[in-house]
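[Meeting: bench + compute handoff]

Bench side (C.D.) handed over the final construct sequence. Compute side (W.E.) agreed to return the predicted structure before the next meeting so the bench team could plan truncations. Sequence as handed over:
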Amino acid sequence: MYEAFYGLTSKPFQLNPDPSFYFGSKQHSRARAYLEYGISRNEGFVVVTGEIGAGKTTILRTLIDGLHGSNVVIGQLVTTQLDAEDTLRMVGANYGLSGLDHVRLILLPAAFPSILAGLKIGWAFAWRTLIAAELVFGVSSGSGGLGWFIFANKNTLEIPSVFAGLLMVILIGLVVENLIFRTIEHRTVRRWGMQS
């Protein structure tokens, strides 16, 4: 009825916002500029807030339509009332991922900081346990590694050698921490754009 009266070619009032009805008011243009800037700078998340019906989704859909053909991949979450597990599931669904692809491309990268922290703790514990085991069980075998070296020199009161062995334990721990784990952390930070 009103389409013919006002000369409209489509229904302007729908449940899903239509980007063709976007009007770039001052506030809408500013919000769109922030979104475009965040995408161009790979800045992570940009949040647009406003009242119901203010045009947030219309701005986003207009922006998405303008990005077709570019190398930007977009996922849209339409609710914020999700826990972490459901959010990751929804992100995977946005990208059409399921099964092993979902695990490899969404879950593992999301869990990687926790996995790396666990590996660091595990490494530190295993390193100390190895040295302690060599100190204790190297006695029965009469040979061993660095722990046995420290133990044998302690028994012969070769204190400089004991301290040299302890220094080697510390240095090996620092090398693994700084060369392996820190390198992985820096590469991860750079890869995910969390560093300028």
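W.E. noted at the follow-up: The CA atoms of residues 139 and 152 lie 8 Å apart. C.D. will use this when planning the next construct.
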